[in-house]
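Collaborator request log, item 7. Partner lab (contact: R.S.) asked for a structural prediction of Competence protein ComM to inform their binding assays.
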Amino acid sequence: MTAHAYTVAFEGVEARPVEVQCAVSAGVPAFAIVGLPDKAVSEARERVRAALTAMAIALPSKRITVNLSPADLPKEGSHFDLPIALALLAALEILPRDEVARTMALGELALDGTLVAVPGALPAAMTAAEEERSLLCPLASGPEAAWVGACRVLAARSLTEVVRHYSGAAPMAPAEPGERPAVTGHRDLRDVKGQERAKRALEIAAAGRHHLILVGTPGSGKSMLASRMAGILPPLTAPEALETSMIHSLAGLLDEGGISRARPYRAPHHTASMAAIIGGGRRASPGEVSLAHNGVLFMDEFPEFPRTVLETLRQPIESGEVMVSRANAHVSYPCRFLLVAAANPCRCGHLTDPARACSRAPACGEDYLGRSSGPLMDRFDLRIEVPPVAFTDLDLPASGDSSAIVAARVEAARARQAERFADHPGLRTNADAEGQLLEEIAAPDEESRALLLRASDRFGLSARGYHRILRVARTIADLAGDDTLRRPHVAEALSYRLVAARQD
Ligand SMILES: Nc1ncnc2c1ncn2[C@@H]1O[C@H](COP(=O)(O)OP(=O)(O)O)[C@@H](O)[C@H]1O
Ligand SMILES: [Mg+2]
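Returned to partner:
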């Protein structure tokens, strides 16, 4: 008779249910796994065999067949070890078949029968809850899976512990959700002297999720400013925390067990590979753009990133989703991030300083920033020149608003947006609004319409540019607590765009 166990196969952030069937029959002794397994799944055979031997359970001299169903769904990873071992133990009547069939399991087995943590326990627990099964996973994965309240999670140290649980010798207690201590001690915006315009741009970017690029000489404080972004963003809402944690779970980054409410802040180096940034690789894992979902992607020394990476970024920026290809399928991961980029104006960095610029100025600046193509530069709603701070400014005591004060204004502006988009699931910030909806929520008054008309005549704004100005102006009005789009809001939005026109 066939025994059944259940597990999942991952497709992007989705965990699809998989049935593991195990039949033990008379015939030439063998142990076969069928149903589109990859190499890691096929190797499960050896690990399961060794783990059972370690528990003094010998495999019978019979034909053992394990089938992973549905057969057309690709099965990747080492987490199939535990469900295969469960199905086999149930087929051998060592574990109760009905109880095994009520459980969804994932986990890798070490040769001595210890359970090794695997990525994806959180999405697996979501699927287990939908299927009305409990989840059995390795000890370290328990705290993250237990966040799915609707699912009973059992987290075991070893296969021996699992057997003792089912036999009633030593029942396990359900796992508790893990807590991650709130991150404190963010670097404060007040530490940055001067640079009022850049700080204002940071606040607008945070409030409406508008992409921002800071251009300035080395040492002017660009990296310093960008690192303050994390401290002015509001914590993740509950649905956002779950979305982001699913991706971090798949990347195996939730090993402390907790779900964090802090917005992710990812700062990949420009030498990181395409797969590391965009996603993909042998196991089609999420890249930095997806790990930054609902948070910040900071790309320091932006023009130094390979051109192929920069070009590939355009589509994910626009759609909030990235397609990652692997051997036989494409998967997509969400990647709705706030892009903050920093760049020197030219390779040596002194283009804007007449005293120190090299002999190739200004052509070298066009060469350098021109490497990130026009259409990509067009994605930045806010483009800020960061001048070097004068020594006299550095010498002054810290002034301006602290991160906490700015964060409160950002949170209030985000609350206005949440209310505005309450009937539009999927839209969260002004940056997400498009077409008809954008025209409704950001209808300029007479004066600002005249201003926009003049600006587009003079600077030749593209349709995309025009809409981007409206979005930023809407956020500026939200920060001011104003329902109407007025001239000062539009004028300020235009000022961040026109630097751009000059650079293009
Ligand atoms: N506006 C500023 N206020 C205070 N310190 C500054 C400022 N700008 C730069 N610095 C100092 O200079 C250092 C280098 O700044 P950094 O952000 O790395 O510059 P960049 O990224 O533009 O090359 C900072 O660590 C800080 O000590
Ligand atoms: Mg820097």
